UniProtKB/TrEMBL annotation:
Pfam families: Cpn60_TCP1 (PF00118). One of its GO terms (molecular function) is ATP binding. Transmembrane segments: none annotated. The lineage of its organism: Eukaryota, Metazoa, Chordata, Craniata, Vertebrata. This is Bardet-Biedl syndrome 10. GO terms for biological process: chaperone-mediated protein complex assembly.
Length: 579
């Protein structure tokens, strides 16, 4: 009964994500309690917006969220493949002739058999999946290179090259729709090409963009998506706290401060308690005198700090915290620009790009704390005014052209969706440039005679396969062949062919669900692929990680016990965690 309930729960999640699955899927409309509407095609956003009470459903959504946080893609495919595998395990268990027919013992035997199949499926995937993908899928794909980021157009000589735009266009097509996918993918390629560091691998450059993405993008509501663009330098999402001198494009010098510039006896919110009585009054009078002396000393100290900054040629002060009126007044008098309450992410990015060090002790300002900027000026983006800075000579030093991404959309919710899609695209590319989950040790254990020619190919990053169910169909055929060969060669263990058949059938169903699946024999597909290359593609590494995560979730679901309070707990079982 519990197993059937689990299948029904997954079928309900499947019905939700199926509406937006594939390149022609629609958007799902959610109405919040505040009457605010949300339209989305993102599987992770759709699933996390649901209010779920069933422990299995909550566990599945958590697994999907963890997977998409790492790989940026595959949330809807995760649910569809998981539901298909659970249905097949349930059907296999119900039809097994070895299960006892008495009521109580039959339920226990079915549950035990289902757990055993799930465990054997996980063991099979961990042991053999990378080898099977190597032999059956990789030869029909190709590898994209980092240089493809700069190739916007293709000459007739290079029409067979699969550029990164195809991978991104396929991703944005399913996430944002067909209308703007080419524009967004080209904009993403321009962003990645601008942040290509000299002598760095693609993974390191992409990781830098991913780590600093909150500081690298600016959402702007009220404009069409076509107004999205790249802006030279960095956008600091604060306005000037003091008047900004009209320096136009003149070079300026700036300093970052992590704390307060003025020494204060009492911080905001602190209270000084005083007592009464003759002796206390004398002490209070002495304290007042000390406070007056301290205030005079603090004012002189602040003047010295401002004078020291002027001697260094500093005209822009960047602060992580709000400053006192005295600081703002003296900075204005000295014609210095002040920017307060800058986020830690933005200050960290500024320090990395400028090569300067933040100041924690204002008595120790050294030349290495001073950043040289090409300019510092206000910029109006939508209804907000921000600070716009640019840096000197970075393109010559590290082959990088610092730029900020401006994401425009008619509404605030849409800008958030586009920003999330950009972030997920970065994660997807990071996963795509990772080698398949295979080490030299596992590669050396190959027993397939035709595996060695593809050994080096699978270890290369950036392997892709045409989209539209191609990966699932090719792996389905490979699993069928593997199952038949194992059935003939190994008569002592019949469970391996069984679990490989389960996975093969689930992949076939997923391939059929996908639009425009290439349903023709592999030799015809290979011939067709040579003459008419498919425009959209998917990362093989992302697909591999998805299969690992789904099978891990299948195992977890069969070792899940519902507690009296309605929560769920996994059985004490020593199986590996991959999510």
């Amino acid at each position: 009964h519990r197993r059937r309930e689990s299948v029904r729960t997954l079928c309900a999640l499947e019905a939700v994500v199926l509406r937006s699955f594939g390149p022609d899927g629609g958007q799902v409309l959610f109405i919040r309690d505040t009457a605010e509407a949300m339209l989305s095609r993102s599987g992770s956003r759709i699933l996390t917006a649901l209010r779920l009470e069933h422990p299995l459903a909550r566990m599945v959504v958590e697994c999907v969220w963890k997977h998409s946080t790492v790989t940026g893609d595959g949330s809807k495919t995760f649910v569809l493949l998981l539901a298909s595998l659970l249905r097949m395990i349930h059907t296999t268990v119900c039809k097994d002739p070895t299960v006892s027919h008495t009521c109580n013992s039959r339920k226990a035997a079915e549950a035990a058999l289902a757990r055993r199949l799930a465990d054997e499926l996980l063991a099979f995937v961990l042991e053999d999946l990378d080898d099977l993908i190597t032999v059956g899928v990789v030869p029909y794909g190709c590898c994209v290179s980092w240089e493809d980021f700069t190739a916007k157009t293709q000459s007739p000589v290079h029409t067979n090259n699969h550029h990164v735009q195809k991978l991104l266009a396929s991703f944005f097509h399913t996430r944002l729709g067909y209308t703007h996918c080419d524009f967004i993918s080209n904009l993403a390629c321009e962003l990645f090409a601008s942040w290509k560091f000299k002598n760095d691998t693609p993974a390191l450059s992409l990781q830098f963009v991913n780590d600093n993405f909150p500081a690298l993008h600016t959402p702007v509501s009220g404009f069409p998506i076509d107004c999205s663009r790249l802006i030279e330098g960095q956008i600091i999402h604060r306005d000037f706290a003091t008047p900004c001198p009209q320096t136009e494009n003149q070079p300026v010098k700036a300093v970052i401060f992590t704390g307060y510039l003025e020494s204060e006896l009492l911080r905001a919110g602190e209270v000084l308690e005083v007592g009464c009585g003759e002796q206390v009054m004398e002490e209070n009078s002495s304290m007042k005198q000390s406070i007056v002396q301290f205030s005079a000393w603090a004012e002189r100290s602040l003047e010295w700090v401002i004078a020291d900054l002027q001697s260094l040629g500093v005209s822009v002060l960047l602060f992580a915290v709000k400053q006192s009126p005295a600081v703002l007044a003296l900075a204005t008098q000295a014609e210095m620009c002040v920017v307060e309450c800058i986020s830690e992410d933005e200050l960290s990015l500024f320090a990395q790009l400028s090569g300067s060090m933040p100041v924690s002790d204002f008595w120790m300002i050294q030349p290495e704390h001073v950043a040289s900027l090409a300019f510092c000026r206000p910029v109006l983006l939508g209804a907000h005014r921000y600070v716009h800075v640019a840096f000197h000579d970075l393109e010559e030093k590290v082959m990088v052209k610092p730029c900020s991404l401006v994401i425009c959309a008619p509404g605030e919710g849409q800008t958030d969706q586009y920003a999330c899609a950009f972030r997920d695209a970065i994660r997807m590319l990071l996963t795509a440039w990772e080698p398949l989950g295979m080490t030299a040790h596992t590669a050396s254990k190959r027993t397939c005679s035709n595996a060695s020619p593809f050994q080096q190919r699978v270890l290369e990053p950036g392997c892709v396969i045409p989209a539209g169910g191609t990966f699932e169909l090719l792996l389905h055929h490979t699993l069928r062949q593997h199952s038949r060969s194992r059935s003939v060669s190994d008569n002592t263990n019949m469970s391996l062919p069984a679990v490989s058949q389960l996975l093969a059938k689930a992949l076939l169903i997923l391939s059929l669900i996908s639009d425009h699946s290439p349903l023709f024999p592999r030799h015809l597909y290979k011939q067709e692929h040579k003459t008419n290359p498919v425009q959209n593609c998917k990362s093989i590494s992302c697909k591999y990680q998805l299969l690992l995560a789904v099978v891990q979730c299948v195992t977890m679901s069969h070792h899940l016990t519902r507690l009296p309070d309605g929560t769920a707990q996994e059985h004490a079982k020593d199986h590996p965690k991959h999510l």
